[in-house]
Design goal:
The chain is built from five helices and four strands, in the order H-E-H-H-E-H-E-E-H. The protein is mainly α. Keywords: DNA damage.
Length: 106
């Protein structure tokens, strides 16, 4: 994931949100767009492919829980390290999806 130029304000908002996804959790591209109230899955994907190398990119997935194409092996290794709920080689969206709300720890 190569960086080109400076991120746009929209890209900065996407990257900020991705940095806040807790370890072991994921958000789909469309979840991010919906949370921000702007753009769509393709715009989020564009941001991630252009500037996402410096954030936990492996926590951003397709709606079906599959990792970004070409990054599957590294993504799966990170998920295993973080204890991300999985179904086979995809994130289990029922349990791994983060809604953007702060995690409550006891």
């Amino acid at each position: 994931m190569e960086s080109v130029g400076h991120p746009t304000p929209y890209a900065e908002r996407v990257l900020d949100l991705v940095e806040r996804i807790p370890a072991g959790r994921v958000m789909a591209y469309g979840d991010i767009a919906e949370y921000l109230g702007e753009g769509g899955p393709r715009q989020v994907g564009r941001v991630m492919s252009t500037w996402g190398g410096g954030v936990p990119w492996w926590r951003v997935v397709h709606a079906d829980g599959t990792p970004a194409p070409g990054h599957e092996a590294r993504c799966l290794a990170r998920w295993r390290e973080e204890g991300t709920p999985m179904r086979g080689e995809r994130a289990d969206m029922r349990f791994a999806r983060w809604d953007g709300l702060p995690e409550i720890t006891t």
